[in-house]
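As the work plan foresaw, the team has encoded backbone shapes as discrete tokens. One protein thus recorded appears below exactly as we store it.

:::
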Amino acid sequence: MTIRVLLADDQALLRSAFKVLVDSEPDMEVVGEASDGAEAARLAAERRADVVLMDIRMPGTDGLAATRLISADPALAHVRVVILTTFEVDDYVVQSLRAGASGFLGKGSEPDELLAAIRVAAGGEALLSPTATKGLIARFLAQEGTGEENRDPARAERLRSLTGREREVLVQVAGGHSNDEIAERLAVSPLTVKTHVNRAMAKLGARDRAQLVVIAYESGLVRPRVE
């Protein structure tokens, strides 16, 4: 299967560089380029993209709004958005994840990291390292407050539909652990972990693991800690 990639960035030079890199891979192809968010959302549907590399700061409709448009469209449920950030710590990161992005990547990342990110996103995984999950995301959520008034009651209520084991797995996912790591921690097989993750996503209405992480924090299941 060839991964169909859409590039969304208002800088033509960057798009050209990304295009050369992506098109050099036998399992990927660039199917479109957008200079603003509105165009990105439109092309994601027209070009049947699998992964969108989305810049946040673009004129007109920015990347955050475009990500919301894509994630809100049932016809684009298969599309994964990877946010490209200029800085590792970006005020928009958590907003991007809440909007439906599968993760984020610094524009200064190595070419191999970018290609790996595309493959990870296309496979339905989240681009959230343990450091990012425990540190950056927790810090932003902690800044917003962690009291009862800041939790999402609807999402907290949905947690009741999870089994005890699914809740355990969700906590581990929110900690940034991979399926293999969770399997080792809970003494089960990676396939069993994957099954629990998929069931939790279905019950909680999450598009992917990144959304599970946000839900775990917003529902109060996992409490942010600032180190």
Notes: The two ends are 42 Å apart (CA to CA). The longest strand covers residues 28-34.
